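Postdoc handover notes: sequence design on the structure in folder B. Input tokens:
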């Protein structure tokens, strides 16, 4: 029997400040940690205290080491400060050359990077530990997320570059629960075409855009599977532990961020209409924050636009473990959301959703999610469709009235996705054992 494996886990939520990302990380790490064939799972993070507070599975590994090793222009010396003088095509070409140089000539590139770190009067401990982890790990797992797209270009390139380090060493790489696209950036498309054919498995969380992009890149085969969102597994566990609870609220999440496409005026009109309907139906307004990242704190977006019970707001001011948010969602008769994972947390518990789509990024995500749940229990709308109380009254009423019909089917779809996702993890570990 082979020695138990050591696995490095990369992902899209180093700060643990997004409940959706954190849920996917927890599910990925837990599945690997609980597999007897795996000895050690190291999880990248820059939030050591939250990692401990949330009792995350695996061992935390400071993300700073990855940034120091794989950050763009880290080996370019004086050119680093002058890089913005060049056009984007030249910068991209220079970054590609640097990536290849770093991973292909480590005997030269690693001492150069150590020297630069010391030259900036920084410690090399995180750099050294991360490099040692990469070299000693048996495999790289990349947990689910919606970051392999144009909106999160820098992070996407960083994740794919780390994968190339493992591939160059002949070590297996697995991707789970990925939402790929939109991808129009030439450098990102090139990087995906270089990395994905060499992945042992690729799990997609939706079956529309991701598979289409892979076909365009000539990436096909039985190593590609549509498994749904990995966070669903944690939602099902949480719902089982919590049991049935009364539905006394309308859940609300609106994402005010550059990539969401929602302007403040549209958000204000929507909230006013929503508040009016909630009063009419005798329901409370329950904020359902997913992101606590600076500049896109969902709790602030909701509280600045609509009057909400102060206790509900105070309880959710700081980053929460995903299960706390899932338990809040369980009390909602329906959820009105502009963010993807608020919809995942609701649909997986049999709760219908009205999803506000204001950008191509979110239209892509919501369309794929709707398909995964059989196109039931989810209504995707644009801002002008819900800008008045009459519009909102009709939408909310139809959504709540549909619950008894759609809830069992939604839970069934959730369970099926969780089982497919578990099977892909087990297959990966079995194949590389």
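Designed sequence:
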């Amino acid at each position: 029997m082979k020695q138990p494996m050591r696995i490095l886990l990369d992902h899209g939520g180093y700060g643990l400040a997004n409940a959706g990302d954190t849920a996917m990380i927890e599910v990925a790490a837990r599945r690997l940690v609980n597999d007897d064939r795996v000895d050690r799972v190291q999880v990248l993070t820059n939030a050591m205290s939250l990692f401990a507070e949330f009792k995350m599975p695996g061992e935390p590994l400071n993300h700073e080491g990855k940034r120091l090793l794989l950050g763009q222009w880290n080996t370019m010396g004086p050119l680093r400060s002058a890089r913005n003088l060049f056009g984007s095509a030249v910068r991209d070409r220079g970054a590609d050359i640097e990536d290849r140089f770093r991973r292909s000539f480590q005997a030269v590139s690693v001492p150069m990077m150590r020297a630069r770190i010391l030259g900036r009067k920084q410690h090399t401990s995180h750099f050294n530990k991360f490099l040692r982890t990469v070299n000693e790990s048996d495999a790289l797992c990349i947990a689910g997320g919606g970051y392999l797209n144009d909106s999160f270009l820098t992070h996407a390139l960083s994740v794919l570059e780390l994968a190339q380090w493992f591939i160059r060493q002949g070590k297996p790489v697995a991707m789970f629960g990925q939402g790929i696209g939109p991808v129009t950036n030439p450098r990102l498309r090139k990087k995906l075409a270089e990395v994905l054919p060499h992945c042992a498995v690729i799990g997609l969380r939706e079956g529309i855009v991701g598979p289409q992009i892979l076909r365009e890149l000539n990436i096909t085969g039985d190593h590609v599977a549509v498994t749904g969102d990995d966070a669903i597994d944690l939602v099902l566990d949480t719902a089982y532990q919590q049991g049935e609870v009364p539905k006394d609220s309308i859940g609300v999440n609106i994402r005010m961020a550059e990539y969401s496409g929602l302007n403040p005026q549209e958000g204000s009109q929507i909230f006013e209409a929503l508040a009016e309907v909630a009063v009419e139906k005798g329901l409370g307004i329950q904020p359902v924050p997913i992101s606590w990242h600076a500049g896109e704190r969902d709790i602030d977006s909701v509280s600045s636009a609509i009057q909400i019970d102060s206790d509900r707001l105070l309880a959710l001011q700081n980053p929460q473990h995903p299960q706390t948010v899932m338990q809040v969602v369980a009390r909602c008769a329906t959820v009105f959301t502009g963010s993807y994972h608020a919809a995942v947390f609701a649909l997986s518990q049999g709760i219908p959703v009205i999803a506000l789509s204001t950008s191509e990024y979110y239209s892509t995500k919501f369309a794929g999610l709707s398909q995964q749940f059989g196109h039931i229990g989810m209504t995707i709308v644009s801002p002008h469709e819900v800008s008045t109380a009459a519009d909102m009254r009709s939408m909310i009423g139809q959504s709540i009235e549909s619950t008894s019909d759609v809830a069992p089917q939604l839970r069934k779809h959730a369970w099926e996705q969780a089982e497919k996702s578990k099977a892909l993890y087990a297959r990966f570990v079995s194949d590389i054992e």
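Context for whoever picks this up: The longest strand covers residues 38-45. Don't rerun without checking with the PI first.
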